[in-house]
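Thread title: Can someone regenerate the structure for this chain?

I was given the following input by a collaborator and told the matching structure tokens would be attached. They weren't. Posting the sequence so someone can regenerate them.
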Amino acid sequence: MLHSPNFLRPWQYIYKREPVAVTSVLLILLLLTISVILYVVTPILGYIVVGVSLFLLGIVKIEYLFYALISVSFFHGWEIDFGAYNFTRGIPYINTVNAPLSDFLAIFLLFSLFFSWIFGFKKLEFKKLKKIWPVFLAYAVFLLIAFISTRGAYDGSIVESTTYWLRPLIFVSIVYLILPILLIKDKKTFMNVLYLWFGVGLLVSFYGLMSLIVDPSVGWTRVHPFALWKGFTPLGINHNVIAEPLVMIIPIGIYLWYQQKKNWIAFATLFMLVIALGTLSRAAWLALLVSFVAFVYIYRKQMQRFVPKNILSVSLIVVTILLPIVLYMSIFLTSGTVKSSNYSRWELTDIAVFYTLKKPLIGYGPGSFVNIVKDNYLFRSEFGDPLDSHGIIQKLLVEEGVLGLVAFSVFIFFILWYTWRAMKNVKTQDNKYLLATLFVMMLGSLTFQLFNTSYFLAVLWLPLGISLTTTIFYLNYVERKKQ
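Best answer:
Regenerated them for you:
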């Protein structure tokens, strides 16, 4: 006797396991559908319904909203500009709001977490922050120095400097550093973050590959961002926006390959490496070199066994894939494009040194670097629009002075030190490799910011926050084992 197939059986099984989650997702999908319909009629009602949907999702199943933030955190070009909509142009202040989608999600996440805690859906363990209190003390000192420097902001722009102090300096520390510590309570959630980032890395890599096909470069062939639709470039417009997330995701791919022993993960990670190198980003190449050296040092015993056993495969990859890219890059470095870029960077560094010597202790206030360059007629006549500092050290020296740079350096040191300490103390190999991966991931991201301008964006701060969260987890684990 034949029975008709029950296509709902898999969904029934999922509902039995996660009834709250399934109900929440269905409710959110319903609300989103309604919002789309409302948007066609009255756009502002559509946005209100979307906001309410995200808020409710955050209260009931806040990890889903957190995963959404993780997934879009590197898409800085995916902006919401309320000044571009007719229905907001007449509303004061609202029509000036312009920020990446990830920032809006982060705000929803922050408010949802607060109300989820108030209503008892989520328990927050603030005591976990005590485990690494020197990290937060160092950053609090940095914020204090930065606030003091706003009082003597360049050209009297105290309001503008204070605004920059609030966002991004305070915003990134709360949303991308502290929130992950409060939200992630087990290894499963953390591993989901790694899987999502690996998926994002593949998506970014395919996007980069497509640029060579649908939008060939004029001049030097290189991987670069391109507009998907009506000028929409989700990552941004500079080639570094492709290389930057890949630099931090590649170590994750190596760890997942080690953990799961699946060849497709190894090939996918190699694909990301090729795309990152193919951007011809010098910052990316240096960051990858630092990551490689750190990996070789940490895994030196394993490398001594792995390389001889796989010498043929390693040689084939180096000769057929990596060597041609290296040769192409060596020729590119002698081009006029690179020489012009080097010259502009040296000019920015000269400006930074000049103004640092004039006001060395606390600098000219957060966000002042661009205004200083804007007033430099020689730079603008030579290179056009003013640029932000291409390096976090110059940025901090000019804006927060030597004291700010020292405080920030101590903050970074403690994050790296706690991760290294946890890696040395855990007993199982898998945990050691995991913490080593996070250490290398942070090292690569920080190296990138020595030559780039994303020092206060999610692409740096989320890796720091996720790594710090995992470090706290394993430090607690080690202490429980000793008791």
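The longest helix spans residues 392-425.
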